Amino acid sequence: MMSGGYTSIDNQKVSGSVPAVSDPSHVAVKFTDSNLQTFPPSGAQGKISGGTQPPHDADDTFSKPAGGSQPGSGEPQGSGWFRTFTIAAYKPYFDVDTSDIIDRLKESLFPFRGTFTEKTATNPDLYGPFWICTTLIFVAASIGTFVTYIAHKLKKKEWDYDINLVTWSAGVFYGYVTVVPLILYVILKYFSAPSGLVQLFCLYGYSLFVFIPALCLSVVPLEIFRWVIAGVAGFMSATFVALSLKAHINSAGERWFLIVTGIFLLQLALAVVLKLYLFTVTV
């Protein structure tokens, strides 16, 4: 009985007053619920970064004073034109997601809608134009090299890689989407129909997207087919730019027709240049 009582008391002590000791090798891990749709945190103001939305017109993009830093960014902000040398000044123009890019690419392939400017008026981006131009450079160099290689081999002639194809393509595409919008910006401002500079960069960048599939189709070894492809791509690109700006340029008065016609013909001239230097294979 004593032993039994002792055992009962001992068991009572063990079960009642001595806490259970967990196995040190077993660690309890609690995972919080994750939802990719809530990333970044709700405190962020933009789609990708915490930056604010871009202004409606690029005229005052780099002229508005920004004292201190943006909330939550922790980055110092300059004022006036000093902001052009800060990364934060360009963040709003990369604040787009995949759905935005796809939607704008579709708009460029259906030029007769003429709604691209309206859809990008409050959020023009430079992300799409940069990657479109970069992709064009890569495609032009790779497709051009492949086509000339095949053409030389079929005629049993020696083939050498032309590095100038890369540099020439980079100069044409990057230069075109930079210089032409700048010139058009000045012209529109002169005719009292100013447009946002970044919005023009965005428009001309997306207008070149149609040349990517056109370059890929240029591998077909038929000269007449290459002319047709270059012509169709040039017409679609020129129509896209002209119709996107038509409603805005109407405010310039009777001169709007000349401006739109000049925009259309310049875009067609780009297609002709691309046909002569990228769509043409010489052996």
UniProtKB/TrEMBL annotation:
Keyword annotations: Membrane, Transmembrane, Transmembrane helix
Domain Yip1 positions: 113-273
Pfam family, one: Yip1
Comp. bias (Polar residues): 1-15
InterPro entries from the UniProt entry: Yip1_dom, Yip5/YIPF1/YIPF2
Compartment annotation: Golgi apparatus membrane; Membrane
Example of a GO MF term: small GTPase binding
Transmembrane intervals: 129-151, 171-188, 200-221, 227-245, 257-278
Family indicated by similarity: Belongs to the YIP1 family.
The protein's name: Protein YIP
Lineage: Eukaryota, Viridiplantae, Streptophyta, Embryophyta, Tracheophyta
